[in-house]
Amino acid sequence: MAIKSPGLRISAPADGIPYGRGFYQLEEDALYLPVEYPDGRHRFHSYIDSESVSLHIDRDGRLIFVEVMLPRRQWKAKKDFVPPEDIAEADIRFSDFRQELKSPHVFCNPAKNRLFISFSRQPSVNSLYLATNLIAQVTADNHLAGLWAFDIIDDMAGRRIASWRRSIRRKTATQTVGVG
């Protein structure tokens, strides 16, 4: 049986906001939203899937990757596309693993460089950073109501995503060397 929206465990932030960004893979007609953590130790462990969206999760329940397999031409553009303004930091862990989701609704702004994935009709009570450029909207009972993705760019053959990941690794290596 498919779940409506993933359950979450939310606590005080531990290590700051991870890095995130959207890369639309032109040759695959898919959106990749990688999440990179400064320690670089987060590997795929499990998933929460629907026909159009896949959430990849590490062993500790942290989100490490989102794939939207719905082509951009099928995203529903909205003129009144208003992202949340009051966003807090938190440590968010997914509590559902190897679950199948009901297909979420996917909306975008007219430029298609911002996306909202709606998992639930329940109203959200909090907006929390999952990563830079990736925000979770959470219901009162700690379920994922929706995901906002910003700063989506076109990519071909994974070149821009690879370049972005290299820049993150350089940045975190520099920060680690400077500490102490």
Structural class comes to mainly beta
Radius of gyration: 16 Å
Give the uncertain stretches in residue-range form.
Answer: none
Give, in order, the helices and strands.
EEEEEEEEEEEEEEEEEH
- Strand tally: 17
Question: Per DSSP, what share of the residues sits in E-state strands of 2 or more residues?
Answer: 35-45%
* Large-scale geometry: globular
Helix content: 10-25%
Mean pLDDT score, rounded? 91
Number of helices: 1
Number of domains: 1
* Straight-line N-to-C gap: 50 Å
Largest sheet: 8 strands, mixed
Describe it.
The chain has one domain. With 180 residues, the chain is mainly beta. The protein contains one helix and 17 strands. Strands 2, 3, 4, 5, 6, 7, 11 and 17 form an eight-stranded mixed β-sheet that branches. The relative contact order is 0.25.
